[in-house]
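Q: Could you fold this chain for me?
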Amino acid sequence: MTVMTDDDIRGGEGLARRGAFFGRRKGHRLRAGQAELMASALPERALDLAQPAPADLGALFPAPVSAVRLEIGFGGGEHLLHEADAHPEVGFIGVEPFVNGMAKMLAALSAAPRQNIRLYHGDALGLLHWLPAGSLAGVDLLYPDPWPKTRHWKRRFVSDDTVALMARALTAGGLFRFASDIDSYVEWTLAHLGRHPGFAWTAERADDWRLPWAGWPGTRYEAKAIVAGRRPSYLSFRRTLDAVSG
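A: Sure. Below is the predicted structure, expressed as structure tokens.
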């Protein structure tokens, strides 16, 4: 396995851009109110990657937070909003490249503001490069685009390179959580995380990956998958003490 140095990770050298990890960025045309929120509300919450990241990510939030977690591709935002409400002492960074999903999140935050959510509208790779080492308590990747055709598997977000980036960003003991209803992507993720020396799969029994995590609110996509007869899997990997410096 090729080991990426901090300089490689920060500069992006050695990270092959295999095409976008997501499909289209736009769906239905935004309503006037949604477009206004994108123009006026997003800048107030958006991270500016042109500026150096603070050594303590807690500085990104207006009130003190005990830890910072990241959700990559929050979709409709159900899980991110639920977690932010359930853990007001934690700061959350939500990444979403899809403009309609970001507009929905901004509408929800306009109706019920949460001070512990910051947003990034773009490719999560840029954010992972920007984050300081050991700055995150958790990373969630929930129902990512499965790219089901074999020739497109190289576009899946989980890869040796992105696993290395997440390992660098997570603090010792931090969790990477992954949910999917696509068996081939579950197996793919187990293989990629299993060969990184800085992660350990936490499962001890079948129910540990067959049943949702405690407090799981579910998502609309998950509900559709279950109706269609696809069983989701819920994987958790802990950032181990060894090789934390990567």
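A (continued): The beta strands are 67-72, 90-95, 117-120, 136-142, 170-180, 199-201, 233-239.
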